[in-house]
Every structure is written in structure tokens, then in C-alpha cells.
Amino acid sequence: MNRSITIFGKKIIISKMILVLIMLLIAFVMIAPFLWVFSASLRPYSEATALPPKWLPPAINKWNMKYFKKLFSDTIPFFTFMENSVFMSTIITLGMVVHGALAGYAYARFQFPGKQIMFFLMMVAMMIPVQVTITALYKIMNILGVLNTSWAVTLPSIVGAMCPGLAGAFGIFMMRQFYLTIPKDMQEAAAIDGAGPIKTFFSIMLPLSKPTLASLAIIVFTYSWNDYFTTFIMINDTEKLSLPVGILAIRQPYSTGDNVEFAAVVLSIIPVLLVFIIGQKWIVESMSHVGVKG
Questions:
Q1: Mean of the pLDDT values across residues 187-194?
Q2: CA atoms of 249 and 84, how far apart (whole Å)
Q3: CATH superfamily of 78-287
Q4: Which of 41, 140, 151, 280 could form a disulfide with 263 if both were Cys (CB 3.0 to 4.6 A apart)?
Q5: Is the pTM of this model over 0.70?
Q6: Rounded Cα–Cα distance for residues 263 and 277 (Å)
Q7: Does 67 have pLDDT greater than 60?
Q8: pLDDT tens-digit profile of 108-123?
């Protein structure tokens, strides 16, 4: 029997209260770094790096906005970095969504030689980090003549080669699991009406999978937006860097000498945070289908 206590005239079950407290503690641990970065971006450099750290931002009338003003000036190409990230993340996301939907549909509905072996190898690819394949990918991009351009990052990622664990194999697996939940009667009814596999995909399967596709797009966009390693390896010119690498580069060639990097981190979080807030319901809805059948 669950014990309860009375607070402000309401009975509260102790076990639920403990669970809520634990969840609040976990939430604080996850949010604390963001609070500290935001607080540091609004303080003088000496206060931002002081120990113990000041977790909460100062009062509004004491906000120091000079670091944000530096980012909006012409001396630091912050928005060039952001434009590069938007371009690369968008191309990667579109490529992953398209090939994830097509390959997931093929694995869910078609029978072809080697299907099980290919699917098994794809699942194994989910456990391979990009560091294992980066040398071969670097040589391939060098042969294609796209090194030191955004295509060195986006081209292999379109087919999941750059980040096979998440954007490639995971996307295909996610879409396959969703298509397996759709009754085969719908496909058979479409076949009776004369619709072939391609027409069935575009007229039935694709419209039904919009929430899952949106969820996959959000996940891939977030991953590619935060990706540091591949851009760092493939691109050398400062003007062509993505935002994560560009933020680190701000300190070196531009010698800011202060915590303007904190302000850059705060602004870089906003786009992906907005994307997640807008699409979080699709993530929850689509994840409920993954693993239901298969």
C-alpha cells in the first residue's frame, strides 16, 4: 500500500513525490551546463571563469552584452559559420530522410536475395564510429576533388557513410519499423486497384509516415548541426567551417581574449533548440512505433 502525506490540504503519494524529486535532480544536472554558459556570456570575463561557477545569470540591468555585439560585428565571421552549418545540415537531413524512407520501405515490404544478410550488416554498421572510416572517406573525398568544401561533409553523409551509426543505419531501421506497423491489407488493396510498388509508396506509405519522417529529420538535423569531428577533418579554410568548429576557431585567428565564445555557444543552441521544441511531439509519436514489430 502506498503511503501518502498531506501538503496544503492535498494527499501526495510519497513514492511519486520521490520520483518527481529524482526527475528534477536529473533535469537540473542536464540543464546546469546551459545555465552556466548563458550566465557566463552575460558577465565580465573574470566573473565568468570564477570558481565556484555562477549558475544563474545576473539581473537584467547588469547584463553585459558586449560579447554578443562582437559576434554581430564584421570582425568575426560568426554568421558565416552559421550559414555553413545551415547549408550542410539541410543537405544532410534531406539526403538521410530520402534514402531512409526508400531503403526502409524496401526492407519492410520487398523480398530480395541477401535481404537478411544486408540488414544484419546494416545493423552492425550502427556500432561503427566515424573514426573507423574517416581515413578511407578522406581519401575518397580527395580523389573526388571536394576536400576543403562543404561537399566533403555532405556528400558521404547523404548515403550514411559519414555517420553510419545514427544518420544512415538508424534512419533506415526507424523507417522500416514504422512501415512494418502499416497493415499489408492497405498495400494489397492498392495493388488490386492497379497501383504498383512505386505508386503505393508515394500515395499511401509516404503520407502515412510524415510524423516519422519529421522525427527522423529533427534527429539528423540535430546530429549534423552539432557534428564537430568530420568538419574538422575535411575542411581547413576558416570561412568554410561549420558552427561547432568555427566557435573554436574564433579564439585562435581572431584572438578575442575574452568569453565571446560563450555568447557564440548560446546563439548556436537556439536554432536546434527551436527545431526540437517544434517537433518533439513527432519524436515521441514516431518512437512509439520503433520496435513494435519486426
A1: 78
A2: 14
A3: MetI-like (1.10.3720.10)
A4: 41
A5: yes
A6: 21
A7: yes
A8: 888 888 888 988 888 8
